[in-house]
Amino acid sequence: SNKDVINGLSGAIGSTLSISIFYPVETIRTRLQVDSTLMASATSTSTARNSSTFCLIYKIGKKEGWSSLYKGWHSMVVALMCLNFVYFYCFHLLRRWLTEYDASGEQLEEIIGWIKMQRQNKMIVDLVVGYLAGVFAVLVTGPLWLVNTRSKLQGVNVDGSDKEKSTSGTKYRGMIHCLLVVSKEEGILYLWRGTFTSIILSLNPAIQLGVYEMLKRHHLLIGNARKIIGTLEPFVNALFSKFISTICTYPIQVIQTQNQAGIQTTNNEKKQGQAIVRGWIQELMQNIHRQGIRGLYRGLESKLIQTCLNSALMFVVYERLKSA
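== Peroxisomal membrane protein ==
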């Protein structure tokens, strides 16, 4: 319906405005996840005072130029607009279908019974619908996220290596060029590298939206002060819900970013016949073995700053546009 399209467009516009403001922090987060030397400098006790997220932004801006902090911005905006349009459109469409569906039929009797039973537990409905919408969105936009990661990391030696383990081998002249080069040199299916991880990570927006909608229904964080609820409520609710979902899923995001950057965690050997699930678990365990549990939280500080503020601003714009 038109309302579902409006929800999708509101999410897309809100995400574009918010990521444009906080993009340098997103760049730092990506760099920290794939560059262990940058991570070491950011966590060293001797340099801690000078290696906060904002200090790293300043250092990289001075060293590589301020424009380097906006590498991949265009591809990020396109990917995020597509992702959030699909996500919010599917979320509201599926939720409306689940809450209104009243068909009958013997083969659907059990499913319909479960749906009717869960209508009273709206948070479960939001979690299920949020996850399904997230899975569909990442399948549609997967190649765009790989392009964005490659664009941001051009000229950067990933994993702290001085060898030719860098994304700088090929200079991408834009999104289309990157898509063509990657599909030609590494195969079309490589464009969906890390998609299995993205499917798992669909838990992130599902948890966020489930918590957000629950807080929104009950006004748990700021009460019923109607004068300030218009702007403050979505900001605070989105900030809190994104914090919870990010903490729960961040280690998976680190593995995903390393996959998209092309890092091989097994002595650069490509395991072409390896099962996806087994390969992902193996990568996770090897990451822990090489860098410890702490390595799975590389860039968490910058991620929390970027994603929580970004989400809070996005939901303020989203709610305003949706109700306009």
